[in-house]
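Milestone M4 deliverable, item 7.
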Amino acid sequence: MAELKPGGRLPLLFFGMLSLLGGVMAGLARLGWDVPGPAMQAAGVHGPLMITAFFGTVISLERAVAVGRNWAYLAPLAAGTGGIALLSGAPLILGQALGSLAALGLIAASLVALRRQVAAFTIVLTLAAACWLVGNLLWIATGDVSAAVAWWLLFLILTIAGERLELTRFLPTPPLAQKLFVAIVSLLLISAALALERVFAGGLLTLAVWLLRYDIARRNISTAGLTRFIAACLLSGYAWLAAAGLLGLAGAFTPGHEWRDAALHAIGLGFVFAMVFGHAPIIFPAVTRIRIPYHPALYLPLALLHLTLALRVFGGLTEQVELRQNAALLNGLALVAFIATIVTLVRKSRPRDAQ
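Output delivered:
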């Protein structure tokens, strides 16, 4: 069968964007903001909407394009429809089951890539997909989102780290560096399995230091254009990952801790979305065949993201509820600003592309 065409991928991406919108509004509802009814009802599944539905859709869609198998697109379809189920008020088990099926599909697609090339980065990407499934199954078994959080975070963190590890092949990286990377990943997996929150935090901090030291972004920051923008996104994201690790060492990953929101969003917004901002001009065209031209305006939503997140973290650390609440709203506006910037750049580039 011929691979799914870019036009057929757009509805899958649209499903993911619905989960992003619903997840952001559900998060605002948790902090006391008035949002539309469906998002208000979904306040309890803010995390699943953002991680299993939105990022699950985007990551599995990217993997499906990479492996070039039609069946692999069932994973983003399941993740996206699972997000719609969570937003629509359908029985919770439906959204949970669809998310688990999506994770199984991503594992299968990752195994295809692993068979094509057995390497440290393909192994890490497969482990990341398995972490997604473990988190989903724990959520189903316990009914407690908190039980799945560490595994869901590893799904995102290891996916990013595995993709960055692949690029270190183009650098004169010492052999010890890859062994250290494997040790860090092992530490994170073991600490998640044993619920050792501070050990988990130490692993995150060590991974952040590793990425800051060995990622190609250190070299690319001295270049120009899109390459420099991507490097700025990556390095700033690694700084937030390190901050989350430090907060975690102080106990912030413990359920109920007053700094937990700060630590989780330092990862989810500061680290993960910085990666999204940096990789969108590359990944989006690969998936949709729609080119995103570089423009310095891309730095504006990136700066807004980091500034508003810093305010949110500060509000959380100092127990300033109103500051944290307002900063969360600005976090959402930063994401909207990025999407609006991308759409504007694409629209302005169309006439030139047509010439």
